[in-house]
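Problem 12. The chain below contains 222 residues. Write out its predicted structure in token notation.
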Amino acid sequence: MAENTTTLFLVAARPRADEAEVVYIPPPHPWRINYSLLERISSQLLHAYNGLHRFLAYQEVDEASLGAIATELRHEAQHAVQFNLHGPEFAELNQLLRDLVRTTGGIPYEEIPSECDANRAAAEYAAEEYPDDLEAMARDERFRQYTVEVAAVGDLLAETVAMVWQLADPDETDEHTQRPLSEVVDELRQGASEWNEQVEADADRSVSRQEAQQAVVEVPVE
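Solution.
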């Protein structure tokens, strides 16, 4: 992915208990996303960077090597790669699936197709760039998933839709839109498929930073 399509919000604080050190916010609006880290950044500031891939990271992380944090960022960057391939409808569909996994407990979070793909990319990166950090990462619950072998995902979109229907009934109501889940999922699947077809035909759907937008935005915490 191109660096000039991204921005990093660096939050001057440390993660709270069970909170991710780095998160990814896809373009344009994070309306289904519920990361605690979003509370540290004003909606107005996020809105000013709506078209870009936004990464949010805590500046202070206890007992973590540079390799561990870099690998976690590589994991999140893979979600941006997924967005570039499948677009905002896929990002929304993926968040819908994540919510189902969290609420039903029917499938381990790490088995979500987008997570498998991101963990595989991160593990390959860690093994190549930070091999000396792997042993410590394997002992740390925060980074252990980046040290194990993960099978490649075949069809990211199809596998995401299939997992939704493992956990939910098409007649259920989507809590965000109050519409039948079958309609919502089908629309998101269709939109993601059409985006991917355009990308495969060499369409450039990326948005680059404008002059007033910074590559790194330091966010103080009161």
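Discussion. Residues 3-219 form one domain. Students who got a different answer should revisit the alignment rule from Section 12.3.
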